[in-house]
Amino acid sequence: MNEYKFKNDIAETLLIPLYMRAKESRRETLAIIKDPIAQNLVEQIEYDYSKFDKAKMSEIGCAIRCWFFDKKVRDFVQSHISPVIVNVGCGLDARYQRTVKVDKNVVFYSLDLPDTIRLRNRYIPATDNEMYIPSSMFETAWMDEIKLQHPEGSFLFIIEGVVMYFEERQIKSFFYDLCKRFHGAEIWFDTMGTIGVKKQNKHDSIKKVEATFKWGVDDGHILETWHPKLRLIEQVSPGKFFRSRQTILMRIMSLFPSLFNKIYSYLGYKIL
User: Fold this and answer.
1) How far apart (Å, rounded) are the C-alpha atoms in residues 82 and 97?
2) I want to staple 108 with a disulfide (CB 3.0 to 4.6 A). Which of 68, 104, 130, 186 is the partner?
3) Other Cβ atoms within 10 Å of 93 Cβ, number
4) Would you say residue 85 has pLDDT above 70?
5) In this predicted structure, what is the pLDDT of residue 107?
6) 112: which strand partners?
7) Is 230 left (phi over 0), alpha (psi -120 to 50) or beta?
8) What does the pLDDT look like over 180-189, one tens digit per residue?
9) Taking the mean position of all CA atoms in its chain, how far away is CA 126?
């Protein structure tokens, strides 16, 4: 079997969290997540994953990020009627299987570029309550279609490990398009801060691939100026979670959230 080749640099980055979820799942004790699908996919998709073996901060970071956004999905499903979950830039993430597979009242969409969706169909075939959308996140036809399909739906958009690879103008336009259509929706995503973008050559896993960070934000309130309906729910430092598993540097940085946010954070927004 030949090593899998992606058609663009950003798509290749989906293998980083996939590998880290698989590594975390192999832990016999203190595992933050369990993802048997990731374990199986790493064994099936030939790639030089060893380049990421020394990326310890990415290893714990991807596990915590996965846990955090999985929890956001579960919490949203429990607190909303007619929940519609949209996993934007889904890659090979089995979030549906980890979170809401047994809940037949949830509609779950996984969106990514057509090549990635073809890869998903090969390794993670869609099920009754999970539907795949082969599209760029920046297109609006898929937004109009799911809004038409679920006029009374409560929408949650999860965008994990995606937005930092695009220019601010692209992300700003994307948020504007969501705000025009999805009154009452929540959006949760992670992104770099300005220092994180500037120092990306020091990032323990990104420096091993060709993709680059193009956008970061230090203060989540800045996005509220992008659209009058956009309101910050929370900006979260991942250093506050699973501290016993964090590196010493991460533990120290987590004591200063405003500094940590200049490197990386999770953000949640409500569309009024």
Assistant:
1) 19
2) 130
3) 27
4) yes
5) 95
6) 134
7) beta
8) 999 999 999 9
9) 19
